[in-house]
Fold GDSL esterase/lipase At1g54790-like.
Amino acid sequence: MASKPYILLVFIFLPFANSIHFKFPSIFNFGDSNSDTGELISAGIESLEPPHGQSYFQTPSGRYCDGRLIIDFLMDAMDLPFLNAYLDSIGLPSFHKGCNFAAAGSTIQPATAQSVSPFSFGVQVAQFVRFKARVLELLAKGKRLGKYLPAQDYFQKALYMFDIGQNDLAGAFYSKTLDQVLASIPTILIEFETGIKALYDQGARNFWIHNTGPLGCLAQNVAKFGTDASSLDEQGCVRKHNQAAKIFNLQLHALTKKLQGLYTDSNFTYVDIYTIKSNLIANYSKLGFEQPKMACCGFGGPPLNYDSRISCGKTKVINGETVTAKACNDSSEYVNWDGIHYSEAANQYVSSQILTGKYSDPPFSDKMPFLLSLKF
């Protein structure tokens, strides 16, 4: 694999409005495969084989990626270690600086018998409540476990991060019309609000909410729903999926504003991932990428290199032939890793844009700038 030069980017970053800043003692994350650092794998529900992890960890790390996720770059920016998955049990995982409840395939709405992941948002919140209660119980017994567990005051001082909703929308298109998908969005967001309220009641005060990306640009959705050219937009993305994502994001943004009004002692930051990812896909060549939608790791060749029957790293018999979904030569040339998830190079770009503060509401405040080095 072609190696990229090690670049140290130094940005001037600014704290948030309402005195949010990047000095959080711990992070608690909730979401799906966009930020899962090993939950579904630890649960034994799925397995990941090489070439997953090849660009950074040199081995599958529980992440649906060739390397680091957006959350890994954000943790690095805050000078915090990568988050262990809640269900990590082997190898002495440390939860001192936080815990990751995100699980691949998770939805905001409660899981059904057909769901990939049983760990819907409500379950992740319940896992956090259990985690916090157990931490406080263990800390009360003595200081021996303090280096592995968050201190009691960390729960209120922590940043609570959310990146979930993609699977609610993308999954719905398999059985619903666009109008039915749009009609379901308020119900989905009531469930999200319920989870946020439960976390607030547990002491959470700093909320960082990612909106959902342009689902119609994922090879998985183009392969399934984009066979008719009239269903695609000028970028070659499925129009209906992106329309649903935009409307979901508008309503999520409105909910974030409502929550800020309800919980005036808290900080809510809404992050426009959709615009960042859309800009990346529209301007991929200017940004150093060669393929905006084709999967690096997949089967079937151009234009999408995606086959729903076989996922990255797996070997199967298809049409009487044994085939393996292999990786491309240089994943840093690809925006998409496996047809569903972004490559490490794309995640690095998205993270660098998040950290400018331009895509956040409220945008990062212009008071007290400080230097922050990102190890990209």
Q: What stands out?
A: The first strand starts at residue 9 and ends at 13. The longest helix spans residues 178-201. Residues 20 and 267 are 7 Å apart (CA to CA). The chain has one domain: 11-293+345-374.
